[in-house]
Amino acid sequence: MPSGQILLADDDAAIRTVLNQALSRAGYEVRSTSNAATLWRWIAQGEGDIVITDVMMPDENAFDLLPRIKKLRPEIPIIVMSAQNTFMTAIKASERGAYEYLPKPFDLKELVAVVGRALSRPRTAALAATPVESEDIPLVGRSHAMQEIYRALARLMATDLTVMITGESGTGKELVAKALHDYGKRRQGPFVAVNMAAIPRELIESELFGHEKGAFTGATARNTGRFEQAEGGTLFLDEIGDMPMEAQTRLLRVLQQGEYTTVGGRVPIKTNVRIVAATNKDLRVLIQQGLFREDLYFRLNVVPLRLPPLRERVEDIPDLVRHFFSLVEKEGLPRKQLDAEAMDRLKRYRWPGNVRELENLVRRLAALYPQDTITGAIIDAELDPQPLLLSQPAGKPAAQAHQNPEGLSEAVERHLAEYFSGFRDSLPPPGLYHRILREIEGPLIGAALAATRGNQIRAAELLGVNRNTLRKKVRDLELMVVRTNRS
């Protein structure tokens, strides 16, 4: 049986009771209180082996209490709970020395598991992170999917681990990379972003590593590369899947040896940068096609982060809309708001351009419409609802809907015809069969998991596949599974 005394602080009596019962059943001794003063007194008296506290207490914010706890008893692990569920909450918890951050509501089994890990770790003093004063929120959303991103980012802030960010275009990959830099240990250094897809293939090596005077025709002076510009900071390699094979080989050598040479240079240059890469492509498919080095993939994919598309976190749309309206208001545009019907339209839209498309829409609404309140009719005028609405309310067909709804087979056939036509007289890259299956398989499994609230047993039954097969598919497709209870 586990052992240890837990000091629990939460202003909500019902939550204290539930947590007390769960932890007591797990074999722990629990002392609970509703205020920070009592918690501090217990800690000062040397009681408790672990602290679990809510952020918002009636007499003191836990973020103000945490530094005092860590100074007095640096070895005691602290688990922070919060219903605020923002990116800054997770970051502040990490900065102030919390062992773990749990956004409410959370699974009680997860809490018990976290407590067990915290009590079994070596009792060494944690290093305090340098506080960040900025209150700007780089990432917005309180969905379960975003909470997992926030927690992962909070754990990565004190490290230099290489991170691979995957996600569709417009999901905010560069924002995440910038947040890793701005709130991490390299925040005092430069953040340098380079888009591989925007650089001519023959210039990528010079762009990354620099070149010497006379290295090639037109090189009239020495040029510093992005690695040199990012020294001591973070180098963000966006659209890494578009990097040509020759540059991949040189990048792999840099990651392995920690040094590089400029184009036309002979003297190795030591480098000290953190690499964050991003792509909207499936690099494993590119590896199968011989277009991406497998050894480089494993070097870059140390910590994978998948950003969910906006259609997988529609509950974040109200927060995002308010955030973008606030930004454009600061830029001098008039204040706007959406009525309930307009917000419903946004939640049912499929958002092929993700958060970037939503931001552009909000800016357009603020700039072009004189109304203070944006209605559903205005949203319908701005969006093309026919192929993109997630669903139509039962018994209420939309005026813009097809008279004869398109079936899945017809939709796939139309999509493939458009896809092939985009290559004109040439053909798509090899491996099309597996790419198409993967594109269909991911949304299908994701929809089944969403419909069953993350219950993989029920999702496997719904899909008609073996549970182990489903688990393998979830792992291979890097799907984020969040188990929730029905409200």
UniProtKB/TrEMBL annotation:
Q: Which GO terms describe its molecular function?
A: ATP binding; phosphorelay response regulator activity; sequence-specific DNA binding
Sorted alphabetically, the keyword list is: Activator, ATP-binding, Cytoplasm, DNA-binding, Nitrogen fixation, Nucleotide-binding, Phosphoprotein, Repressor, Transcription, Transcription regulation, Two-component regulatory system
* Superkingdom, taxonomy of origin: Bacteria
A single GO CC term for this protein reads: cytoplasm
Q: Which InterPro entries match?
A: AAA+_ATPase, AAA_lid_NorR, CheY-like_superfamily, Homeodomain-like_sf, HTH_Fis, P-loop_NTPase, Sig_transdc_resp-reg_receiver, Sigma_54_int
Q: Where is the Response regulatory domain?
A: 5-119
Q: List, alphabetically, the Gene3D superfamilies matched.
A: 1.10.8.60, 3.40.50.2300, Homeodomain-like (1.10.10.60), P-loop containing nucleotide triphosphate hydrolases (3.40.50.300)
Q: Where is the Sigma-54 factor interaction domain?
A: 139-367
| SMART domains attached to this UniProt entry | AAA (SM00382), REC (SM00448)
**CDD domains, sorted:** AAA, REC_RcNtrC-like
- Positions of post-translational 4-aspartylphosphate modification: D54
SUPFAM superfamilies per the UniProt record, alphabetical: CheY-like, Homeodomain-like, P-loop containing nucleoside triphosphate hydrolases
Q: Which GO terms fall under biological process for this protein?
A: regulation of DNA-templated transcription; regulation of nitrogen utilization
Question: Which Pfam families does the entry link to?
Answer: AAA_lid_14 (PF25601), HTH_8 (PF02954), Response_reg (PF00072), Sigma54_activat (PF00158)
Where is this protein localized, as stated in its record?
Cytoplasm
Q: Give the protein's function.
A: Member of the two-component regulatory system NtrB/NtrC, which controls expression of the nitrogen-regulated (ntr) genes in response to nitrogen limitation. Phosphorylated NtrC binds directly to DNA and stimulates the formation of open promoter-sigma54-RNA polymerase complexes.
What name is this protein filed under?
DNA-binding transcriptional regulator NtrC
